[in-house]
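Input.
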Amino acid sequence: MKKLSFGGYGISLANERIQFPVFTNPTKEIINEILIKTLEYTRGVIKISIVPEPETGIFELTVEYDSGIYLPLLSIYADDGDIDVKNWIENEEYDRKEVIIGGHYYSSKFTTKNVNIIRNLLINFIDDTNLLLSIMK
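Output.
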């Protein structure tokens, strides 16, 4: 069984950084609890990763968020040692505009406002990381 680490942080309206607890082998309930916390902060990052990182394959799902917009990024070690990053691009809200997340511009095509989609991606990381390869491009 793989060992997972899950945590992150939020930035308050007063620009204070609030560290979320780090959980080993998080449950679906813990993921829900942290996702609810993201709604309390204007921006931040949550991350779930395999510990220790594998030499090849999926090793991390990072979700950056800002003002209720989420940007999921799946990191994969390629066979040649490079890191590939895949995005979720099934966004039905895609309007060809750019959005700002953490001070950087991203196509809205790679983002979602639907926290349930983010929950499902995180839970898929726990249940079957390979399933994410078919969801994220």
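Residues 3-135 form one domain.
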